[in-house]
């Protein structure tokens, strides 16, 4: 579990990038918090720098779009999903529970 920021410091429509390996992006989409791997699966671009609309984030390079709830791409050129992570808030602090990478033990 990684502490990210105070909930008050992540307003609706904004995101924050966590410099983990791999980097993770946390989004406040209409009051709901979502965390995904920050790197677009089409090409190395930070999704935290993309455009947020509802539960979708658009990659700033080639307009690939990902559903924050599932990590699934919603249009080309991306074909592979990004990994999602569980987010909780405790005592006003946002935490990310990092999901295990494929091929590793949980």
TrEMBL record:
Gene3D superfamilies (alphabetical): Rieske [2Fe-2S] iron-sulphur domain (2.102.10.10)
Rieske domain ranges (all copies): 2-96
Alphabetic keyword roster: 2Fe-2S, Dioxygenase, Iron, Iron-sulfur, Metal-binding, Oxidoreductase
Transmembrane segments: none
Keyword hit for Oxidoreductase: yes
One matching Pfam family: Rieske
InterPro entries, per database record: Rieske_2Fe-2S, Rieske_2Fe-2S_sf
Molecular function in Gene Ontology: 2 iron, 2 sulfur cluster binding; dioxygenase activity; metal ion binding; monooxygenase activity; oxidoreductase activity, acting on paired donors, with incorporation or reduction of molecular oxygen
Protein name in UniProt: Bifunctional 3-phenylpropionate/cinnamic acid dioxygenase ferredoxin subunit
Species this protein is from: Streptomyces flaveus
């Amino acid at each position: 579990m990684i502490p990210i920021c105070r909930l008050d410091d992540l307003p609706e429509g904004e995101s924050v990038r966590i410099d983990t390996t791999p980097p993770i992006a946390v989004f406040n989409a209409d009051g709901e918090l979502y965390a995904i791997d920050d790197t677009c699966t089409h090409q190395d671009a930070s999704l935290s720098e993309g455009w947020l609309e509802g539960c979708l984030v658009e990659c700033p390079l080639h307009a690939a779009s990902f559903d924050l709830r599932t990590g699934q791409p919603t249009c080309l050129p991306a074909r592979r999903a990004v990994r999602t992570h569980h987010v909780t808030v405790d005592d006003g602090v946002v935490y990310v529970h990092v999901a295990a990478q494929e091929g590793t033990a949980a």
